[in-house]
Write the structure tokens for this entry.
Amino acid sequence: MDSLKRSQIKSIVGSENGGAQFVGQRVLVGGWVKSFHVKPKKEVAVDSGGTDVAPRDLKCAEALCLKIPLLRCIVKILNQGGNPVGEKLEAVMQKKMEGIAYLRINDGSCVNHLQIVLDSDLHPLEQVTAIGTSVLLEGVIEQAQTEGKYTIELKVDKVLHVGPVNPIKYPLSKSRLSLEAIRVYPHFRARTTTVASVMRIRSILTYAVHKFFQENDFHHVTMPVITTTCSQDHQTAFHITQLLSASNHEKTQVDGVTLEGIQAAIKEKTKRIEELKRSDSNKDAVFTAEQDLKAANELAQKLENEEKKMEKVVEVDYSKDYFGCEAHLSVDPGLHLESYACALGAIYHFGPVFQPVEQQLSKNLAEMWVVNAEQVFAELECAMRCAEDCLKSLSNSIMTGCPDDIKFLSTRFDNKCMNRIHAVLSEGPFPRVSYTEAVEALQKVSDHPFATKVEWGVTLSEEHRRYLADELHKRPIIVYNYPKEVKPFYSRLNDDNKTVSAFDIILPKVGTVVCGIQKEERNYMISSRIKEVGLKEEQFDWYLDLRRHGTVKHAGFQINFDQLVMFLTGFGDIRDVVPFPRTKNDAKC
């Protein structure tokens, strides 16, 4: 027996004429009910307003109970207490819901819904008229009977599956919920039109990443999530161990005071003494304050000694751990990427990185996805060109691959996101300014006070970067040649011995999305830098081997994939563009 293959709703309603060419064809579709209304049969032909019409022999309240599942549940609750109103409405509810149901369903393949026409003679309407109900239906495509949003509709003659919901417990029963409200339901929120659009954009971008690098002769190599090498302070990584000890996390206290608390108090007391001296206060007040400060310093010293004792007691012997050494989740796959680049020539990696994040949860997550690329016989210029071409290719992919989703999100959330995307795609390369030029330009700004002072030699704050892209250039820019102190130790030192060959691509609204570096290929120089920043050289012995044996100039870059999605969709919170965001005190599901 022949059976129909389920058609995606996108293939039916995604055409310019709304699917009119499918009229008369038989299709099998499935999806979830997004909205509905019910009409009595005798009024279907004459009512063209598309609004709910109650049967003439029912009162308004009775009609509502037939049509709104949530109210039906409330009626049941009322009836349990013997409420006479509840008893009356319960009797009404026992009547079969008769009429024609117009369901709008979506299967996640596109923004647009498909309108379904279901007769109560074919299937009980009370089973399908609840938001979130899943259905699998077969029928014939017809021209919509009433003028309005929908060009076509599916007249159902077979109901193959119904997955009911409990309207009281189902969190998406309301038609419009805020992004904040649905964050607590990460397992359901993809059923909303908004989040579904974001996930389709992520899907297109993921494919576009592989397409770009494959077409440019890069090899895809997966880098380890678990690593023993950390290019940053190991305290900023998630450690992996089976040697769990609650005492590792205890804070040393004296009379309920922690070391962190007393250190903060010492700062305040020192500031107070300075104020007293400046105000020519009497000697007794200054003496009392100084004695108070002395006592605080003595207490801090006592706490520090206690913590050192604790560290000796709870010091972890990693040789007895699973890997036989200290291990953690990868913060940056770039170091490992170099080893394969120096064998395959040009490679890329697409995967997650992990780092405990305490602040700016709207911009950073504990688990973020990044794209890393590395090329040999390449310098900084090559990496900048490749990164810019990649950004333009990815931006173009969503304009051609999911224009309806971008249009929907720009209409609903940020009507300027399309302009920002076009700024990426505009002809000509991104403007390039050196770090020094960027600092000089910011120092000349007089009509915009910055919260953080602009100084050469310090990291540009998010506010500084946003001003460069949003106000001064009004498009994506590349800032390059940073001071060596603000970039990783493996960045190649320039001839001035002050700056390194590194760059950032800064996008309007979101800030830095791409970071690129020409790696230091000189063994003596990188060994010196490792010592200079205070890292353990033995930890990087394998990495130094790449310089000892067949060293070559190489450069690469990293794209923060999640922040790129933020930029393209216009969202202001990174938690809304990631399927299951992980932040401090929040790792649902």
About this structure: The longest helix spans residues 283-313. The chain has 17 helices and 18 strands. Confidence is low (pLDDT under 50) at residues 45-59. The longest strand covers residues 26-39.
